[in-house]
Amino acid sequence: MDWCMATLERAGPCDSLPCGGGSERTNETRELWVGDALAENCAVETYMNPSGSGEPITEHTPTDRVIAWTLERFARQRWMMTTSFGMEGCALIDMYARLDVPVTVVYLDTMFFFPETHELRDRLVERYPHVDFVNRGTTMTPEQQAEIHGGELWKTNPDLCCKLRKVDPMAVVMRDVDVWVTGLRRSQSPSRAGLNLVEWDWRYEVLKVSPLFKWERTDVWDYVQANDVPYNKLHEQGYPTVGCTHCTAPVLGSKPGDYSRDGRWIESGKTECGLHGGDGI
Ligand code: SF4
Fold first, then answer.
1. For residue 165, which atom of ligand 1 is closest to its CA?
2. Separation of 234 CA from ligand 1 center, angstroms?
3. Is 137 in the pocket of ligand 1 (CB under 6 A)?
4. Pair 192, 166: CB distance under 8 Å
5. What are the residue ranges spanned by the domains of the chain?
6. φ, ψ for residue 219 (rounded to 5)?
7. Strands of the 79-82 sheet, one edge to the other
8. Phi, then psi, of 248 in degrees rounded to 5
9. What contacts 88, CB < 8 A, 6 or more positions away?
């Protein structure tokens, strides 16, 4: 096996990067990691576990072990999970919650959530009492947005709408974070196909860890069913994913175990909100 643990190095100052530079974050976290590209069979790192033996963490490491590793490895760093209450996020919350450790899960309420999404949040809060669900969504009301930017911004300029209600609020969250745990999967969309278990997120300048990166939606659905994990009831009504009310539509024939982003931004051709790169912003 090739060992790919290395220091991430970028030529030039930070202001040459997509993040725009200016961050005062230390490079302590970034310098620990390969970052952008981990080749097949390369180890993320050889982790010295508490018993003192080296354990390679690779893209083939079982997900439950990856999750335990993140808790041990980043215990002294500022890490948190985010969710948009998709099925993947619900499964991941369950995986962390069953380890009985305090976990913070941040979500961004856009003020355009479906009632079913709020209802799901309430069920998750009840099911996982030691998980701290924190809303860090925008404080700009829809009325204020309409006053400043015009009505129905999600139609006239959906990228700006997502920036105001998702991307910018997330930037505020990420100022206080070193490690960002997500429920992203490679097969969710072409723009996520290159996702790695661990990678440096240049937009927010944090280490991004995606334990489900190799899972398929059927794997997620199987897990959710096997473990009685709460999920959004809209998945049973033809919604493969659930975002804002204005930009999410059901997909004909879609069942809970199916995944596609066909029901998102169907009027604009937009495919990503911009939180995870892609063509959203
Ligand atoms: S998904 Fe639609 S309504 Fe929600 S923030 Fe983006 S453009 Fe606005």
1. 5
2. 18
3. no
4. no
5. 62-247
6. -65, -40
7. 131-135, 103-107, 79-82, 179-181, 206-209, 198-201
8. -130, 130
9. 183, 184, 185, 212, 215, 220
**From the CB of 70, is ligand 1 less than 6 Å away?**
no
261 Cβ inside 6 Å of ligand 1: no
Q: What is the mean pLDDT of residues 133-146?
A: 97
CATH 3.40.50.620 describes domain 62-247: yes
Q: Which residues are designated catalytic?
A: 273
User: Which tens digit of pLDDT belongs to each residue from 77-126?
Assistant: 899 999 999 999 999 999 999 998 889 999 999 999 999 999 999 999 99
pLDDT in tens, 58-74: 888 899 999 998 998 88
Using the mean position of ligand 1's atoms as its centre, give its distance from the Cα of residue 248 in Å: 9
Instruction: Work out whether the CA dihedral 66, 177, 224, 246 comes out positive or negative.
Output: negative
Question: Could you tell me if the CB of 112 is within 6 A of ligand 1?
Answer: yes
Report the C-alpha gap between 110 and 45 in whole angstroms: 37
